[in-house]
Amino acid sequence: MPDPLSFSLAGKVIIQFGGTGLLGRALVDALGAAGATLIVASRNREALETLAASEQARGRTVHVDEVDIGSEESLQALRDRVLAEHGRVDGIVFNAVSRPMKGYSADLDQWRESMDVNATGFFATVRTFGDTMADKGSGSIVNIASQMGTIGMNPWLYEGTSMSASPDYFFHKGGMINLTRYLASHYGEMNVRVNVVSPGGIYNPDQPQADAFLERYGKMTMLGRMADAPEIGGSVVFLLSDASTYITGANLAIDGGYTAK
């Protein structure tokens, strides 16, 4: 039986990119509860400071820092600040995402804008901090993809609603999954693990999805419903922890059985 302490993140310095959205807040809560020294980084410092104050009031070690993941210089400056203050980086969670496109016919400039964050920014981030952890000889990278990176678009889900599926999201989440495999191979001998989780649809209680969509989506899963955001965090904690030291290059579906049905 594994040591229960191996599932803890106590003593680990983790950087999470993207933390103020629905899933991001849930991940901050999970990583904080697991005992991580957590740095949440994004461009929206004001929103981050509100988040950090809430977590610190609960006795958790959560810091915030500004970064522009589209700028390698900004990422390197963040790296240097974290190393100066904490001495090391043990793991990162890439949850940053840009979704400017609202449909297939959107302006091509929105596609380019999306790729700045979701492709170039993603690679720049994992390379900057993957190299940092490789220099130390250990670490874990967990990328947040989506089941939409492994399947095609199902138009039936959206019929009769104002909702739609944008092509850039399918493109960059699929790319994230396969680049994760490349990165796992690249960093494997340096004892840096790279994995990806692919959540299914997440119910938003603040802005609920259309009733017709929710009903149809539930029929596509084995559990009959969308996920709640807190249900994603446990898998991310596991992949960052010492309980998963022989797992790398994996894509973990957290989709209620959607892609297995």
Rounded to the nearest angstrom, the distance between the terminal CA atoms is 31 Å
- Which stretches of 5+ consecutive residues score pLDDT under 50? none
| Number of helices, counting only DSSP H or I runs of 4 residues or more | 7
Rounded radius of gyration (Å): 18 Å
Shape: globular
CATH topology label: Rossmann fold
Give the tally of β-strands. 7
Task: Output mean pLDDT.
Answer: 95
The number of domains is 1
Shape-level CATH architecture = 3-Layer(aba) Sandwich
Structural class by SSE content: alpha/beta
The fraction of residues assigned to DSSP E strands is 5-15%
CATH superfamily: NAD(P)-binding Rossmann-like Domain
| Helical content band | 40-55%
Largest sheet: 7 strands, parallel
As laid out across the biggest beta sheet, the strand order is 3-2-1-4-5-6-7
Helix-strand string: EHEHEHEHEHEHHE
CATH class type:
Alpha Beta
Could you explain the architecture of this structure?
The chain is of the alpha/beta class and 261 residues long. It has one domain: Rossmann fold (3-Layer(aba) Sandwich), CATH 3.40.50.720. The chain has helices spanning 22-33, 45-56, 72-86, 108-136, 167-187, 211-220, 230-240; strands spanning 13-17, 37-42, 62-66, 91-94, 139-144, 192-199, 251-254. Strands 3-2-1-4-5-6-7 form a seven-stranded parallel sheet, sandwiched between helices. Helix 4 links the parallel strand 4 and strand 5 (139-144). Helix 1 (22-33) packs across helix 7, helix 3 (72-86) runs parallel beside helix 4 (108-136) and helix 4 (108-136) runs parallel beside helix 5. The model has no long low-confidence stretch (mean pLDDT 95).
